Structures are given as C-alpha cells and as structure tokens.
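User: Hi! I'm a student and our assignment asks us to look at how structure tokens line up with a sequence. Could you show me two examples?

Assistant: Happy to help. In each example below, the sequence comes first and the structure tokens follow. Example one:
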Amino acid sequence: MNAAGAATREGGWPLVSVLVPAYNHERFVRRCLDSVLEDPYPTKEIVVIDDGSSDATGERIAEWVDRHGHELAVTYRRRENRGIAATLNEMVRLARGEFLRLGASDDYLLPGGLDAQVRYLRAHPAKAAVIGDAVVVDRHDRLLYESSMRDLYRVDKRRYRSDQGIRRAVISHWAVSGAVTLIRRDAFQTRAGWNEALRIEDWDFFLRLVARDALGFVDMRVCAYRLHGANLSKTRDVAARIANLEESRQVALRHAGSFREPCATLLRAQSHYIAAKVAYLRRRPLAVASHLLARAWLAALARTRRPPGALLAEKA
C-alpha cells in the first residue's frame, strides 16, 4: 500500500487529488504546486498535465517534481495540446482520490481550503461538489480584491446559501473564478465529465450540477485567482469572443429543459442576453435592442413563476 492510501485508512482523512491542467504558465506554475505542498491537509496528491505548452511550463513542472516529488504523490504527464476539457477528463482518470480539487496553473490554493471543503462534502452527502470564494491577485502576487465574488463580480454571496439561489446565480451571473471547486470522485461514475467539444466548458459543467441541486458553497476564500491579461475568458480577440459567446448561448438553450421553473425561463432569458452581446460585437444595434427586450420580458415572466417563499430562501 502506498503512503497516501495508508494515511487515508489510518488517519481517516480521505485522499484529495489536486488536478492541475497547465498551459503556458511558466511564470506561475511553481507557485501553484508549492501551494498544494504547503496546504496543511494531510492526505493529498497532485495530478498535473502540461497540455502542450509552447513556453517553459513543462520544464518548470519537471524541476519541481524532481525537487519535491518525494514529499507527496505526484503524477505528471506532458503531451500535445488537447484543450482544457480533455485535459481535465484525463486527469480524473489518473487520479486516485475520493475527492478531486480543480486547480489552475496560474492560481494557487490558500491554506485551510481543502480541509473546509472536504468537511462540507462529508457533512452533505447529497452534494456532488462544493465551491468557495477567492482572493484576486495580479501577476506579481499583489492583492487586488479580498473577494472575487463580492469585489470583482459584484455578487451578493448570500445568493449561494440556498439551492434556489445557487441555481439562479449560476444561470444569470456565474461569479466563480479559478481553483475553488472540490468534487466527489463518485460523481463521475454516473455522470459525464467535461464536454470536450466546448471551448468554455465550465458553465456547461456547473449547469449540470445545479440542475440536480448537487452544488454547495462554503463562504471561505479557498484560492488566489490571478488576473494577468491572458485569462481565456478575458480574451480581446473579437472573433474568439463571439465564438465563445455563441457557444455559451447554445449551452443555455440546451440545458433549459433540465430545469424547473422559473430557472428554465431564466436560462432562455440569459440566452437572449448573450445574443445581445454578440450583436453588440457585430455592431448590429437593432438586434441588440431586440434581444434585450426579449430578455427583459422573459425575466419578468420568470418572476411570476417563482415559487412562494423563493426570494426569502435566496437571501436566508
């Protein structure tokens, strides 16, 4: 039996596999891996894949593994680029942990987050995953925001304290950044992982979770999310932004049938909001106005379909 398995059995601490997909983050990946090693949670492993980086990311990871690989279990692979969804699915297959912590090679974990999220999932067996908050830092590790949810995305975190609130938040204002998610391994035994046909796969993944009330929240900063100008979702390439938005609109329409009211109508409203963004980028003002009107009408309709007491539940 390996050391990680022995610790799981003898100490009662379930093994956590920290999944780190790495791509062109030679400047940041060491800090990410250091944060996993330094986290006080006692039973963990790292699964890291260099997804075809064109810089020295692979070399930085290999150097780190040579230096620290004896201190905790590390599985490292380096291969051609296949994209984030394929990389995540491959890491799940390589991982041995009962719980899977999603990492990001330009972000880093904050001490105590693993413990808090493991405790949450062990106390809430109906939840397949749990998210937390993050601090926001720049490329030099200087603090930009104390809370990514509150200060970067301007979202009231109280919305995440109920299933109804989480559903509405994920649909209308997905305000989660970086490596803040812990997932049960057995959630992948009956559900598909990440959709490898998508470029922006996380919204699709989390919509599937909240459609069955399987996502929880701990109000704790569990990672540092780094803003450095190259984040995929922040691309300034107009064609790429349009492609990502059109993909997101199709995701919204495809998932609308998986939700009860009023969330099904809210997803359709969100699809029009996304379409308005596309029309704006294409400089089609009449289409922008049309989609915004459709969004407003559907949002108003959703309010009439809200179950009694739902607003109080969201703010509880």
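Example two works the same way, sequence first and then tokens:
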Amino acid sequence: MIQFWFLWLFIAIVVVIVAFTLRREPDDMPRKDILRAVETNAGSMGLAEKSFLWAFSWLDTRFRIQDYWGMSRDAYHSVHRQMPLTHAEKYKLRIIWYWYPLYCLGGISFLAFIILVISGTILGFYYVPGGDLSSDPTPAYASMEFIMVELPFGYIIRSIHHWTTHFMVASVFLHMCRVYFTGAYRNPRELNWLIGVALMFFTIFFGYSGYLLPWDSLAFGAATIGINMANSTPLIGDWASALLFGGTELTGQTVIRMYFLHVFVLPVIVTALILAHLFIVWVQGIAEPH
C-alpha cells in the first residue's frame, strides 16, 4: 500500500503547486492578511489552495517566514547592488514559467528530475541489486519482474520512471540547443554553460546506469558495449572499467556498482549542479530573446 500513498501524495503536491502558481495575488494585498484572504475568497478557492494557504499562514504566524525572507532579500540587494533582479522580479511575473515555449525546457528538465527522484525512490523499496550470473533469474531481474507483475501499481511506477528518463534526456538536449542557437552561453554566462554541459553528460550516464539495473538481455548487451568501450580507452582503460563496472569483465559486481552510482553518487552530483545552475540563473538573469 505504500506505493499507492506515494502516488497520491505526489499528485496532491502537483495539484497544490499548480493551483498556487496559477493564481495571481493582488498587488495591494498585505502579506500578513493571508488568513483574511482565505476567508474572504473561500468560495473562489479550491480545497488544495485553501489548505496550502492555511498551513503557510499558520507557520508564518509562528516563525515569521515572510519577514525573515524579506529581510534577507533586502539585505542581499542592498549589499550586492550590482546584481540584477531575476527575470520574474524584473517584470513582476507571478508564475513559474515564461511565455516563450523554448524557455520552458529548463524547467521541464527540472520537473522531470523531480519525478524521477520520487518514482525511483519508490522502485528502490523493492529492487534487489544482485547480478549473480550463476543464478537464473538473477536477483535484480527477479525483483524487477516482481515489480512489473505482482506489485500493485508497480508497472505504472516503472513506466513513469522509464518514460520520464527519455523525456528528461530529450528536454535537456533541446534546452542545450536553445541556449547554443540563441547565443545564451556567451559572456557572462560561460560558467553556467559549462555546468549545463556537465549536467547533459551526467543525465546520459544516469540513463545508462539505470538501463543496466534490470540485468536482462538488453542490459547485458549494453553493459558489454560499455565495458568494451572502457577497456579500449588509452592509458586509463583498466582503471575506468574497474571504476564503472567493477572489473575488466562483466560480473555480478557490475550491477551493484551501477546501482551504487545510480542511486547514491549521481543524484548528489546532479542535485548540486542543478542548484548551482539555478543559482547562477537567478543571479545573472535569463538571456532574453530579442
């Protein structure tokens, strides 16, 4: 039943975010009158939006979240006057995307990453990272078969994880193309372009490492190609194979190594790069179309 509640929790979070971001708050409304606004506009608000505003106002009354956030923002802009406002602050946008379709690709990639983290966490509860070649089926394949056949909603969760991976790779690639062809990688955004290139590489490796985890015939073929490419690398071939595949030949350790990289190493690296990427975009602003 746990995956059922995770699914509905995810749906509820998405509904709350959409309901809250699509609603435009009047400019003359004091920030401390949220409760009064909920009571006044109770008929025009949905249950998710009212629940979110009630919870936020309860926390804000006790912990002064908005006051401290406003003080921090004012202090930042007073100390760093040379730093421009964000695109949303400059044009007073109150939604999380822009009206230019190609400028949504970065946000779409980030949303896909969040979906992958949630669905991958649910799958990790039931996946067994064992690739012992002497057993048929291997523990990894048996656990994946259990998820697909016997686990309630397991087929749906794995399908979401599978297709969102393709969606993220495509959106990241198109995002890179948009940045390149609009010249958004130029001064002063060179560092963020390099971070984006690194994110593209890690996104592809994310997909490849996850592709090997079922340890079926397709995964074994892909692992064979990958380890042959690693062994063929001049000077560091053996080292690269041992690091990525657990040796110069495919063994049961290969699945464990890929599982460790996919679940522990890559998420930390990608999350840190995404935060740095978004922070630089927030500081420098978006290269607007002309």
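Here is something you could point out in your write-up. The CA atoms of residues 170 and 189 lie 22 Å apart.
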